[in-house]
Specification:
By secondary structure, the chain is an alpha/beta fold. It has 13 helices and 13 strands. The radius of gyration is 19 Å and the shape is globular.
């Protein structure tokens, strides 16, 4: 396929996985606030138990959103009278969680996902909270984990940049950021992980020039926060890389890139197509 750089991958460009679960009936009122967890509840057949969700579960219609930037709108959440609340390490503030727990709601910590191998335990935890049998969780996990296209010697080298312009936060991703797992699955090489970085490190001209990636991967909100492509190219070292010189930049919707939800297989497929063009 022909790729026109820079590339934008929007939520609507990616098809969620297609499954037809058996409906799960139950009396629980599930408030799904962990990233993308409402989509998982729905795909497990327990969507009828959902009373609220966070903003990243875009495929679940008719269920109110009660978070903003992972922060709970507590009055809205309490009004839904949940009996089960799915949370992860991003959800807050603590006093909101305490208020929900004080009502008698069960607070369930959903494991975070940093690699494709983390998806099954996450699905299993959500399934258990929603009363779904383990077999249903296993089948969904298999559908959500895309095949691995680990690249060879000519694989495109990709740098994941986390950007928040107003806060002057500019970071280079390494291993265990979540993006590195997607890059690898799509047949690319994460240059931050290759250089031995664990998590995020400050983005410096020296680090980026040393990495000299073929492609830059960014999230849409982060790119907007630095003034788009033009602003990105003005950050230290970006214009001096092969990716910067040719504007080989891939922008992915924030709600999709690290949610490891229903669009993960489609995202990996699309990234694979794009990276295949970058290493030619």
């Amino acid at each position: 396929m022909d790729v026109t750089w820079p590339v934008t991958i929007a939520t609507e460009d990616l098809q969620p996985i297609a499954v037809e679960p058996e409906p799960v009936t139950g009396s629980e009122r599930v408030l799904a606030l962990a990233v993308g967890s409402a989509e998982i509840v729905d795909l497990l057949g327990a969507g009828g138990q959902l009373v609220g969700k966070d903003e990243t579960s875009v495929d679940v219609q008719g269920v109110p959103v009660v978070t903003q930037g992972h922060q709970i709108e507590i009055e809205q959440a309490l009004a839904l009278e949940p009996t089960v609340v799915l949370v992860d390490e991003l959800v807050g503030p603590p006093e909101a969680l305490d208020a929900l727990a004080d009502t008698g709601a069960q607070i369930v910590d959903v494991p975070s996902v940093w690699t494709l191998g983390d998806i099954p335990p996450r699905v299993e935890a959500i399934a258990g909270a929603a009363g779904v049998d383990p077999e249903g969780a296993r089948e969904l996990s298999e559908a959500l984990v895309p095949g691995d296209r680990s690249g060879g010697a000519e694989a495109a080298r990709v740098a994941f940049l986390y950007l928040r312009g107003p806060s002057a936060i500019y970071l280079l991703g390494g291993a265990n950021t979540g993006a590195d797992a997607l890059i690898t699955a799509a047949g690319g090489v994460d240059v931050g992980a290759e250089l031995g970085y664990d998590g995020f490190v400050p983005l410096t001209a020296e680090a980026l020039v040393e990495a000299d990636p073929d492609v830059l991967l960014v999230m849409s909100d982060g790119l907007d926060s630095v003034g788009g492509i033009e602003g990105l190219l003005e950050l230290p070292g970006v214009a001096q890389t092969r990716a910067g010189l040719d504007e080989r930049i891939v922008e992915v919707d924030d709600r999709v890139l690290l949610s490891f939800g229903t669009r993960t297989p489609a995202l990996v497929d699309r990234l694979s197509e794009v990276l295949a063009e970058a290493d030619q």
